[in-house]
Specification:
Layout: E1 3-4, E2 12-16, E3 22-26, E4 35-38, E5 41-44, E6 51-55, E7 61-66, E8 74-75, E9 81-84, E10 87-90, E11 99-102, H1 106-113
Length: about 120
C-alpha cells in the first residue's frame, strides 16, 4: 500500500522498502537539480527517528520532527537526493518507482560500520 506525498512533496509516495521498512519513492521523473519537496514537521530540540537537523541562518542547528512523506527517506552511501536546509533536491537522475535516498552523514556511516566507539 502506498501513501501519496502531500503538497510538500507531490511527486513522492511512501511504499515498502527493500532497504528498511518504508521508503519514499518517486511517482514522477526528476533530473539533477530538480526540487523534490520540503521536509515538513514540528520544530524540536530532541533527536528522534524522523528528525532532520538543519543549520539556521545564525549557525545554530534546529531539528524538524518529520510529519510528511519525506520522513520515510532511507540512507544510502550513493544517494540520489540531498537536502539544502529543509529543501530536497535531486543529485542524480530519478525515474518513477525509484526509491529516494540520502546520505545521513559520516557519523551514521561510522555507526553502521561499528566504528562509533569513543576514543
Amino acid at each position: 500500500m502506498s501513501e501519496p506525498g502531500p503538497e510538500s512533496a507531490p511527486g513522492v509516495e511512501r511504499q515498502e522498502s527493500a532497504i528498511h521498512g518504508h521508503g519514499a519513492f518517486a511517482t514522477q521523473a526528476f533530473t539533477v537539480g530538480d526540487h523534490i519537496g520540503t521536509y515538513t514537521g514540528t520544530p524540536t530540540d530532541v533527536d528522534d527517528t524522523h528528525v532532520l537537523w538543519v543549520e539556521t541562518d545564525n549557525g545554530d542547528w534546529q531539528g524538524i520532527d518529520g510529519t510528511g512523506v519525506l520522513r520515510w527517506l532511507n540512507h544510502s552511501r550513493t544517494p540520489n537526493v540531498a537536502f539544502d536546509g529543509a529543501e530536497l533536491r535531486a543529485i542524480a537522475p530519478i525515474n518513477p518507482g525509484d526509491e529516494l535516498t540520502f546520505h545521513y552523514g559520516e557519523e551514521w556511516d561510522a555507526f553502521i560500520d561499528g566504528d562509533d566507539e569513543e576514543e
